[in-house]
Amino acid sequence: MKAAVVLLSGGVDSATTLAIARDEGFRCHAITFDYGQRHRFELESAKRVAKSMGVGRHVTIPFDLRAIGGSALTDDIPLPMDQDPDSMSEQIPLTYVPARNTIFLSFALGWAEVLGAFDLYIGANAIDYSGYPDCRPEYIAAYENMANLATRAGVTGQGRFIIHAPLIEMSKAQILQTGVRLGVDFALTTSCYDTTDDGAACGRCDACILRRNGFEEAGIADPTRYVS
Fold first, then answer.
1. pLDDT at position 88, please?
2. Which residues pair with 121 in a beta bridge?
3. Domain with 176 in it: what CATH number?
4. Could you tell me if 3 and 117 are in contact, meaning their C-beta atoms sit under 8 angstroms apart?
5. In the chain, what percentage of residues exceed pLDDT 70?
6. 193 by DSSP, 3-state: which?
7. Distances (CA, A) of 57 to 27, 47, 132
8. Contact 9, 123 (CB under 8 A)
9. How many Cα atoms sit within 13 Å of 200 on the Cβ side?
10. Residue-wise over 182-207: b if at least 16 C-beta within 10 A, else e?
């Protein structure tokens, strides 16, 4: 089995992405990032998801993006609440973390090169939150090209890096349906940006609204514990 590195946040999208990579025959290694995010409960969820799916190795990389701020997830900026889902993608949201996917993919690329893996999986999605510039197909293609120009493995012909973004054109409902088909236990996942200490979801942030609506549209029972 070929190895793949999967970016795993502990949310619905990354858990489904991990399940897809496993279903496509890869021996999966998961990488999670402790970057100073306010929704730290997702780190515990990532551990649970990785364990439930039997990944080869799961590493958590610590660094602190609060030092540069610029996002409601890492800075003293109020989280958007109770927004209309139809208006969420009209502008780049306050929850955008500057250059986050570029930073994440760079760590994952370095680890993949060490592991001898040439396949990286990311749960980027251009339908929900289409305002995120680093979730677009053009970005994924550009990063893949860069990965093959910037690594020893790429320039010496050991292999070609491929950045897989299997969810990029799926709706949240389609992602959930795919995950259920592949055996993902969504009760282990966390989407909320403002959980309580014991992991209950606020029910009001953008991530909670999209999650709730996705489960409803997919016709799947939502296992999330919501505060409201």
1. 79
2. 6, 164
3. 3.40.50.620
4. yes
5. 98
6. coil
7. 10, 11, 29
8. yes
9. 7
10. eebebebbbbbbbbeeeebbbbbbbb
Cα 92 off chain centre by? 17
Classify burial at 47, counting beta carbons within 10 Å of its beta carbon; exposed 0-12, middle 13-18, buried 19 or more: middle
Domain that holds residue 76: 3-218
The answer to whether 173 and 218 have CB atoms below 8 angstroms apart is yes
pLDDT at 90 over 90: no
Check residue 129 and give its pLDDT.
59
pLDDT value at residue 130: 60
Q: What share of the chain is helix, strand, coil (3-state, %, to 5)?
A: 40, 10, 45
Which pLDDT belongs to residue 209?
A: 94
Whether 101 is in a domain gets the answer yes
Determine, yes or no, domain membership for 213. Answer: yes
Q: How far apart are the C-alpha atoms of 188 and 108, rounded to whole Å?
A: 23
Domain count, the chain: 1
Region for 210 from its dihedrals, namely left if φ exceeds 0, alpha if ψ lies in -120 to 50, beta otherwise? alpha
Instruction: Tell me the one-letter amino acid at 203.
Output: G
Measured CA distances, 112 to 5, 36, 107, 151 (Å): 6, 24, 9, 10
Mean pLDDT of 4-15: 98
Question: 34 has which bridge partners?
Answer: 62
Note the pLDDT of residue 28.
98
Give a yes or no: residue 123 inside a domain: yes
